[in-house]
Amino acid sequence: MPQPDLVIFDCDGVLVDSEVIAARVDAELITAAGFPIEAEEVAERFAGLTFHDILLEVEKLSAVPLQASLIDEERKLLDARIAREIRAIDGAREAVARVEAPRCICSNSTLDRLDMMLTKTGLKPLFGDRIFSSRAIPEARPKPAPDVFLYAAKMLNADPENTFVLEDSVHGVHAARAAGMRVIGFTGASHSYPGHADRLTEAGAETVIRRLADFQTVLAALSEWAE
Questions:
Q1: Residue 217: CB partners within 8 Å, gap ≥ 6?
Q2: What's the Cα-to-Cα distance from 212 to each of 73, 78, 97, rounded to whole Å?
Q3: Across 10-162, where does the E strand assignment appear?
Q4: Is the pLDDT of residue 140 over 90?
Q5: Is the pLDDT of residue 139 over 80?
Q6: At residue 69, does pLDDT exceed 60?
């Protein structure tokens, strides 16, 4: 059976159920700053973006100036909430362990937050040092820029065209496609919304799964199809 050069997992909303926590914290802060917004809208419109980029998008939408100090406040609040509430997505450990090809994580979260989440959920040993943050690479451009995906491929000697990415956000799908990689969408986290799968497909995902238990089967089928 043909094997990918590399399989890349997003972390937030794919391996750990953190996007719903972030959406609630971000909605509370943005609403208090003068732009009322529900957590569900934050998840649908902005999942996959850094909080800095979310604030820039909200300013464009609302013309409400938002203080840069919100970024530090959000980081502290979100780290505290994640430390208390984080859990792995159902089937994450098994799905990762079944991947026979080289695997890694590419995320917009900081390395410190990734370490905390993956340690608390017991997933860190499955990846070792193959954990890449867009905040820690030389270019430092977060998704939807493709930089973190291309950096991981370079570090792990993988051909982007033979690399598969599992992503839950439109912005992450755009980033992976811009890197020349193939994308499987995922809608099994708590922040998923009606029409989520359609939006991932429209962004460039070849197919979408709701259960991580289906990942290996889909990955194998798409790898065969590439031949």
A1: none
A2: 33, 25, 11
A3: 103-107, 131-133
A4: no
A5: no
A6: yes
**Residue 73: pLDDT over 60:** yes
In the three-class reduction of DSSP (H, G, I as helix; E, B as strand; rest coil), residue 7 is classed as strand
Return the biggest CA–CA distance within the chain.
Answer: 55
Angle at 55 between CA 47 and CA 46, to 5 degrees: 15
Find, among 85, 75, 87, the residue nearest to 29 by Cα. 75
d(CA 73, CA 146) in angstroms, rounded, equals 28
Beta bridge partners of 209: 186
Comparison of pLDDT for 61 and 113, the residue scoring more: 113
**Closest C-alpha among 179, 144, 145 to residue 164:** 179
Residue 12 is given by DSSP the state B
Q: What percent of the chain has pLDDT over 70?
A: 99
pTM for this prediction: 0.91
Nearest Cα to Cα of residue 188 among 42, 14, 8, 47: 14
Element (H, E) at 163: strand 163-167
Residue 15, pLDDT > 80, answer yes
The bridge status of strand 6-9 relative to strand 163-167 is parallel
Q: Which residues pair with 164 in a beta bridge?
A: 7, 182
